[in-house]
Amino acid sequence: MKYVGMQSQIRRNNMFSVLLLIMFPVIILATVWVFLALVNYWGTGYYDQYGNIINELNLDVVNAYFLNVLPWVIGIVLVWFTIAYFANASMVTRATGARPLTRTENPRIYNMVENLCMACNMDMPAINIVDDPQLNAFASGINKKSYAVTLTTGIIHYLDDDELEGVIAHELTHIRNNDTRLLITSIVFVGIISTIMSLTVNLLYHTFLYSGTHRSRDKEGNGGGGIIVVLIIGLVCSAVAYLFTIVTRFAISRKREYMADAGGAELSGKPWALASALRKISQNPGLDNVERADIAQLFIMHPDEMQLGIMGWMNSLFSTHPDPQKRIEILEQF
């Protein structure tokens, strides 16, 4: 794979971040408009002279309601995104169980990170550790204050110095390329969408439960229209959320890992060592207990035993992690 250069990758990722920031509110606002349109269409039906229900969409009414709710939607999304974006460090820490690693606790790791940062003239990020006997690592953060490289205890103990140096160089390249900022942006977006989906599913469940309980009081089907509206709204929200997930997962493409592999090999000067490390990690990737596929995007290799049900299956269809063997083969060609 041709290495396009660090500055080119940084510019590309900054462009993706801007596109995501623009695309997300557009999708949210479009979903709100569709919601109002469906309510207007299904909620204002009337019977004609033959007893048939006539539904009409009044665009003037829909647009008027949309303009009224527009400031509230923008305000809520903006506040939500701001809090989640700047609280990402604690969010990732809670999800992974990471804790700080000091020079005193492990001078070997600390010196590796410090030396690699000096070699590429970058500020040293924080170093975290996760008590997991399996193998994995990731970089996170949105700025110099929150950048961090996290390693499992398993990867520290199992890999030799050359292999571990290659892994750390890979993660530092993610930070240098602004990959972590781009990934955190997508994590926040997907988190908001996932919450909307969860609320929609709960609404559908309780609506059908209520409908079943009161069916005897509603023999003429007066409540059926409400159930249909909720169902349609749920389907629309789910479709929009699914579409957004696809877009973000393709935006944060597999090239992100290939580029970090190339940058890590270049920084450490030992592509064969990084290839060897990836081979070992692929046989026993850790952090299986992190039950959030969005945060798993950060890992050097996706956990192979994540139990996420239907959402996990959907996420696997659009995985941002390339095949480990292909990554190893490319590194071995350096």
Helix count, DSSP H or I runs of 4 or more residues = 13
Beta strands, count: 6
The chain-level structural class is mainly alpha
Shape, principal axes of CA atoms: elongated
Please state how the strands of the largest beta sheet are arranged side by side. Answer: 3-4-6-5
Report on the architecture of this protein.
- With about 325 residues, this protein is mainly alpha-helical.
- Helices cover about 65% and strands about 5% of the residues.
- The chain is built from 13 helices and 6 strands.
- The protein has helices spanning about 5-45, 60-85, 90-95, 105-120, 155-160, 160-175, 180-215, 225-250, 255-270, 270-285, 295, 310-315, 325-330; strands at about 45, 55, 100, 125-130, 135-140, 150.
- The strands form 2 sheets. A 4-stranded mixed sheet has the order 3-4-6-5, sandwiched between helices. A two-stranded antiparallel sheet has the order 1-2.
- Helix 1 (about 5-45) packs antiparallel against helix 2, helix 1 (about 5-45) packs parallel to helix 7 and helix 10 runs antiparallel to helix 13 (about 325-330).
- It is elongated and about 85 Å long.
- Residues about 215-225 and about 305-315 have low confidence and may be disordered.
Present the secondary structure layout.
Blueprint lengths: L5 H38 L2 E2 L5 E2 L4 H28 L1 H9 L2 E2 L6 H14 L5 E5 L6 E4 L7 E5 H6 L2 H16 L2 H35 L10 H28 L3 H14 L2 H13 L9 H4 L12 H9 L6 H8 L3
Quick structural overview:
This protein is mostly helical and 334 residues long.
Record keyword descriptors for this entry.
334 residues; mainly alpha; 4-stranded mixed sheet; 13 helices; 66% helix; elongated
